[in-house]
Amino acid sequence: xxYSPLPLEPRNQIDAPSSPVARFGPDAPLVMDAGIALAPWQxxxxxxxxxxxxxxxxxxxxxxxxxxxxxxxxxxxxxxxxWWSTMVGPGRPVDTDRxxxxxxxxxxxxxGSTGPASLDPATGRPHNLNFPVLTIRDMVRAQAxxxxxxxxxxxxxxxxxxxxxxxxxxxxxxxPERVFSALPIATAARHSAQNIAFHEVGxxxxxxxxxxxxxRYLDEGTRPSKGLGVARMGAHITYLSELALHRKFGRNYQxxxxxxxSFDADFQIESYLRYQGLSFVERFDANSYLYxxxxxxxxxxxxxxxxxxxxxxKGSPTRFCVISFTSDWLFPTSDSRAIVHALNAAAASVGxxxxxxxxxxxxxxxxxxxxxxxxxxxxxxxxxxxxxT
Amino acid sequence: MTEMHAVxxxxxxxxxxxxxxxxxxxxxxxxxxxxxxxxxxxxxxRKGVDGRGIEISREGVNACLAKGLPVIxxxxxxxxxxxxxxxxxxxxxxxxxxxxxxxxxxxxxxxxIGRRAIVSFPxxxxxxxxxxxxxxxxxxxxxxxxxxxxxxxxxxxxTIRDFLTLCTEVGAQMERxxxxxxxxKPVRMMLPWWAWxxxxxxxxxxxxxx
Lengths: 389, 210
Known about the structure:
Order of helices and strands of chain B: HEHEHEHEHEHHEHE
Number of strands of chain B: 7
Number of domains of chain A: 2
Number of strands of chain A: 14
Shape of chain B: globular
Mean pLDDT of chain B: 88
Order of helices and strands of chain A: HEEEEEEEEEEHEHEHHHHHHHEHEH
Low-confidence stretches of chain B: 1-10
Structural class of chain B: alpha/beta
Distance between the termini of chain B: 36 Å
Number of helices of chain B: 8
CATH topology of the largest domain in chain A: Rossmann fold
Number of helices of chain A: 12
CATH class of chain B: Alpha Beta
Strand content of chain B: 15-25%
CATH superfamily of the largest domain in chain A: Alpha/Beta hydrolase fold, catalytic domain
Shape of chain A: globular
Structural class of chain A: alpha/beta
CATH class of the largest domain in chain A: Alpha Beta
Helix content of chain B: 25-40%
Radius of gyration of chain B: 17 Å
Strand order of the largest sheet of chain B: 3-2-1-4-5-7-6
CATH architecture of chain B: 3-Layer(aba) Sandwich
Oligomer: heterodimer
Radius of gyration of chain A: 21 Å
């Protein structure tokens, strides 16, 4: 049997990651929205800092679509710094000298938590498309099981951007008493039609790749790199802004001074996107991409509460701070305002700031001093309110 | 709550102290145009108020978040419609009504969202403003109104008398009123309206739906 789904290192990370793993057996199945009790299952995570004596300083960071648990350490796969090491670390807004920070890989992911590429012990084969379609709430249930396992009753703060922000909102709605403060960034309480549309294009690209093999590429020793690469290229455009693309690339040619009258990557932007696609397929599993995008599509917090988003937060004791970016057209400010509006209607404590940036949706992952200032101010004030030093 | 922010009485703005005096302890307050959150902090720390704020500037919102105040970035002219009726005990509009595009609609929202509204504004009827116009024939620029006519955010100045007329139009009942001099000290109470309108550099009104 030949496996060539991914290069060796990311493939190793799927079942035996270089992170602590919480394993749950048949006695503790993950009960999923699809009506399936998944067992056994596991969740991989990283921690930073020290849990204090009364376990009141724990922070949960939720990652976005293609993120992982390596929020503030060098990635074992890419060798690059943690994906949010500007936000999380010693002296950062999420200060690991003060807080005990947890970040776990989402269920359905491919960095050590159970997902479609994980081996199903019942068959000895990867789950592939037999893996249940999952939801944001399933991801949050899995995280809650991990937090229980770590003996933490209530989290000081739950934060994240994009899909991470969806998890933050789900946490606050599902476990209000366990979330002291919540910081959802560049996110929405429901995935828009336009966003579902982009995801569908990405999924169709993957499934149109003959090497996808009906989802059984791991068994058949192939790899839908072309499809996954195209999916990533399309998605990557939605993370930027027209202005940022123009500023960075304009109509500049790539290593040439004139068009070649071919379909080669004449333009820098083409070359850049191809590179983004190529590097992505080296670290991410195609079926995971299908499952995790689907979970985002299904996210509609209001629908779970009689179409009234405010009801999701009724009586919430959580302090919220919502952040959006002016040039984010994937999760525009109007999405954040809908959250703020609902929190206001629910009489919850909420702050909101729209950060001026031309970097599009990706701004939340980048050097944005205004975002850091707002996050730091909110977190520090919440820490004082919680009696943390 | 273990949050404490000492407020120095000596440096607290006199008009804020006067506003705070109109607010019942432990009540729920929305401060529209809350700036850096000075008044909200004062209300929280002195009166145990559950305070919320709306502020248009990013710097102001960030300053408020750093004080632990739940403040959202927004615009009085567009965002008040989203708030339900009677959501707050008091809605405060401090030195902001003159900067709104539609003061009447804003005032109506105040009276709808809050059981009471507190409005303070610079009085364009003050004798120095009148004198400036009369003598110099120019739009006045004072400590209280520091902008030139062409770059001012204050697009709807009014006098105390004008504001009283607006209150009648929107069906607001005045429960308390105070005129302040340049230093923020209340003008002596036993004066007729025309005298207040001459001597008050600022005015503060506590209003209720009729």
